[in-house]
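Regression check, zinc ion case 334:
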Amino acid sequence: MQLNAKARPRFPTLAGFCFHPAMPLAPALFDLQINGYAGVDFQDPELTENHLHNALDALQATGTRRLLLTLITDQLDALENKFRRLEKMRARSPFIAEMVCGYHLEGPWLSPEEGYRGAHPGELMCAPDLAAFKRLQEAAGGNIRLLTVAPEWPGSAEFIAAVASPRVIISLGHTNASEAQIDDAIRAGATMVTHLGNGCPVTLPRHDNVIQRLLARDELIACLIPDGAHIPPYALRNFFRAKPPGKVLLTTDAMAAAGAAPGRYRIGRLEVESRDGVVRAPGSANLAGSCLTPAQGVANAARWLGIPVSEARAMFSKRVAEVFGIDLPMIEFR
Ligand SMILES: [Zn+2]
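Current build output:
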């Protein structure tokens, strides 16, 4: 519909510039897995409020207004201290509290098997433990909203049944679970898959592998990393098409190298190298997080999946917010 000239509202101009009122609004981006950004490693036990603030400022510049700050496998004491430190920052800074609307805990209840453990320290992996989770959740102020587990550990189904709720989403990842173990996890309340297509060895049996076993489960929401390195664009397209409508979310799994120049960075204890858009431990084929920005993720997904930008954006914003029951602001969007 076109407004006629008389009905068209007038807008102030200054020195010949017109303020465009019609900048479209879109839901802000919401990243559910982000380990660091703009040179700042969120795993750092000495992380300062200033550094976190700077990283969040840089994320905000990409149109991101909400994230689940992600902590990866570490000793329980260390994780507890990190959560307490982060909660103090959230209590002091409304900006940090608003941006970091919760946490994603990825480990230590993952597979220690080589390839499946990815960049996580295998020696710290163990069976899930409800008392340990409660201790961490208390330190996190009840804000662990997403928990990645490998359901092949004994006691996983009981653990998932005790923890899963609208407040804590259980996601399967870094796993080599059998079909029966996936069945049990779903029955117990697991609803998501962490970075489907990753967190497993580079080479797998062609059919009998955990990617196929998880991809086949319509009950599970698949989280995908659209950086072209974690999943080649053609595989991303296949995964997307294999899922029922509304069952795909996008995330960066970004670490400190994202939004920063190529070079050496840390993710927890691991030193990694960011080069040519890929982050790896030197000499390793395994990826160690991404250097993808959320905005680039949306653009990549739209192009590679052949879908409108608004649809790609919904999987990185509105639908993520719906899963976690979090309000998302609208922002101006070019
Ligand atoms: Zn991972």
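Comparison notes: The chain is about 30% helix and 20% strand. Residues 106, 118, 173-174, 195, 199 surround zinc ion (CB under 6 Å). No diff flagged against the previous build.
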